[in-house]
Automatic annotation (TrEMBL):
Similarity-based family: Belongs to the TDD superfamily. DTWD2 family.
GO biological process terms held by the UniProt record: tRNA processing
Alphabetized UniProt keyword annotations: S-adenosyl-L-methionine, Transferase, tRNA processing
Organism this protein belongs to: Pseudomonas mucidolens
Protein's UniProt name: tRNA-uridine aminocarboxypropyltransferase
Length: 206
């Protein structure tokens, strides 16, 4: 018999994290485009980001039929948060007259690139990038390279730049709790033996 599940955070009811999810407003609008393979992922941090931000939307799929409307809400300038040689640093948009719609693909790097390939409107967007060298708080898996963050960490870092001095750190509370729960489940000794020297996270996003 399946365990009862919280319909909001989609965690087992006995480990619901809704009490840790903030309700934060932002001038920047965040559009999360989530690959279907991420929906049941144990660390579905995109969902926590969408739940914790009032001006955010999470859409799941591979091909987004209404993408034109999603990408161009009135009054916003749209940018894709994804690396590229021509990507501009987010600092270039601080103090901008028009707020950003920040589009964030959610999935492994391979799945995120697939979303761009299947949705040419998405791939054609001007790109922005985060500062290099950030270290993920996800301590249980090795990152593929420097600056590889979970989706919620990437969003927090982006909003901290765009909306300084406002703090979006509270968005990380359920993420931190998930990690602590995984460490506790494996036991401190196992964690120290296998993971204590690892910083970073598996994906560009998850």
């Amino acid at each position: 018999m399946p365990r009862p599940q919280c319909p909001r955070c989609v965690r087992p009811a006995t480990r619901c994290l809704c009490s840790l999810i903030p309700s934060l407003d932002s001038r920047t609008r965040v559009l999360l485009l989530q690959h279907p393979s991420e929906v049941r992922h144990a660390l579905n941090t995109a969902r926590f980001a969408a739940l914790g931000l009032l001006n955010a939307q999470l859409v799941v799929g591979e091909v987004f039929e209404d993408l034109q409307a999603l990408l161009h809400p009135p009054g916003y300038q749209t940018r894709l948060l994804f690396p590229a040689e021509e990507a501009q640093p987010l600092q270039a948009y601080t103090g901008s007259d028009a707020p950003l719609l920040l589009v964030v693909p959610d999935g492994t790097w391979r799945k995120a690139r697939k979303l761009l390939h299947l949705n040419p409107l998405l791939a054609a967007l001007p790109r922005v990038t985060l500062a290099t060298g950030a270290i993920s708080r996800y301590r249980l898996r090795k990152a593929p390279g420097p600056g590889a963050l979970s989706t919620v960490e990437a969003i927090v870092q982006a909003l901290q730049v765009l909306e300084a001095p406002a703090s979006f750190e509270p968005l990380l509370r359920p993420f931190d709790a998930l990690i602590e729960g995984q460490v506790a489940a494996m036991g401190e000794e196992t964690f120290q033996k296998n993971h204590a020297d690892i910083n970073g996270k598996l994906n560009g996003h998850s």
